Automatic annotation (TrEMBL):
Keywords: Membrane, Transmembrane, Transmembrane helix. The keyword Nucleotide-binding does not apply. This is Cell envelope-associated transcriptional attenuator LytR-CpsA-Psr, subfamily M (As in PMID19099556). The chain crosses the membrane at residues 7-24. Residues 50-201 form the Cell envelope-related transcriptional attenuator domain. Pfam families: LytR_C (PF13399), LytR_cpsA_psr (PF03816). Belongs to the LytR/CpsA/Psr (LCP) family. It comes from the Bacteria.
Length: 356
């Protein structure tokens, strides 16, 4: 009797799903902030957690495409008037502050967020019954909370536990690791996501979706409703991996005051970020500002640097001018851009120039 009931359910799903998809309204394109949080403080499980992974995902429903933009965890940002790594933003102000920081930085609108920890990640991978990968490097690392041991070139089926080991690996016990450091790990994570997406090409994913939904509702924090999650999941069934585009935020690693940062050059990613919405190349987030103090008052340039950065501008340099002026002068190449700067400085003395 149980077998008959199961058979009826399977036949019903096979018949119902195609009919449902034929009458399925194409959902609207959305931007989602996806963050993976680290293990946190072992002695205080309620302590704020830093973000170990930060990704922006755009679902382009018209062309059934997915765009994944990864932000390195060491990206240097301004936070409360000081420079910090972007992975500290969540620990300071939670997901909303991180969302606001990225919106201001990249001049995009983020519609929803998904926050996942390692436990939820393991369960999610198990819910889709894992993926097969070829290990790109020898991985041998032992820590308090994780032990990672894979051999380069071997094909491994990654269940939840092994998948966590695979995406968290940065370096070995002897210090060797990805040639590009954390950027290499980000590329591995993106490739892993593509592998996961390929699971949705199988008709069997229909029968795994209830498990996926259970994991999401129980262990993943998101402001996406269950209806929306199911709607987008069904819409992207069978997605071609060629329709999934990935990119790591442009920039370069740099030591500043003995601290390793990633200096972002996201203005170079304009073409890719256009997929996340209409972005103006002359947006204040893409404008470079230099502030020179031409008075006898010390610290004036640093003070205004803080003001501009809090408003989302990128101040690339401050210093002292070699002459003294009684009035502030704004040198700008665009009249529209100069308007807000005039308001900030309460200054009408603007000189338009062809280039700076």
């Amino acid at each position: 009797m149980k077998r008959i009931i199961k058979l009826v359910l399977v036949i019903s799903l096979i018949v119902f799903i195609p009919i449902f998809l034929i009458n399925f309204k194409v959902p609207e394109p959305i931007n989602i902030l996806v963050v993976g949080v680290d293990a946190g403080d072992y002695n205080n499980i309620n302590a704020p957690k830093r973000t170990d992974t930060i990704m922006l995902v755009h679902l382009e429903t018209k062309e059934k495409g997915v765009y994944i933009y990864s932000i390195p965890r060491d990206t240097r940002v301004s936070l409360n008037g000081e420079h910090q790594k972007i992975n500290a933003v969540h620990a300071v102000g939670g997901i909303q502050l991180l969302k606001q920081k990225l919106e201001d930085m990249l001049n995009i609108n983020i519609n929803y967020f998904v926050k996942i920890d390692y436990k939820a990640f393991r369960e999610l991978v198990d819910a889709v019954e894992g993926v097969d990968v070829v290990i790109p490097h020898d991985m041998n690392y032992d820590a308090r909370d994780i032990k990672i041991h894979f051999k380069k070139g071997e094909k491994v089926h990654l269940d939840g536990v092994k998948a966590e080991q695979f995406i968290r690996w940065r370096k070995n016990n002897d210090g060797t690791g990805y040639a590009m450091g954390d950027l290499g790990r980000i590329s591995t994570q993106q490739e892993f996501l593509v592998k996961i997406s390929e699971k949705f090409k199988s008709p069997l994913i229909i029968f795994r979706l209830p498990k996926v939904m259970k994991v999401i509702s129980s262990n993943i924090k998101t402001d996406l409703s269950k209806v929306k999650i199911m709607r987008y999941s069904l819409y992207y069934l069978g997605i071609d991996k060629n329709n999934i585009k990935t990119k790591v935020m442009s920039g370069q690693p740099e030591y500043i005051n003995s601290i390793s940062y990633y200096i972002a050059k996201y203005n170079e990613d304009y073409d890719f970020l256009q997929n996340f919405g209409n972005i103006d190349k002359t947006s204040k987030r893409n404008i470079k500002i230099k502030i020179l103090n031409s008075t006898n008052k010390n610290g004036l340039a640093a003070r205004y640097k803080k003001i501009f950065e809090e408003k989302g501008y990128d101040v690339v340099e401050i210093g002292n001018y070699n002459k003294r002026f009684n009035k502030t002068v704004i040198y700008c190449y665009d009249e529209e851009i100069s308007k807000e700067i005039k308001d900030i400085l309460d200054c009408e003395n603007v000189k338009l120039v062809g280039s700076l």
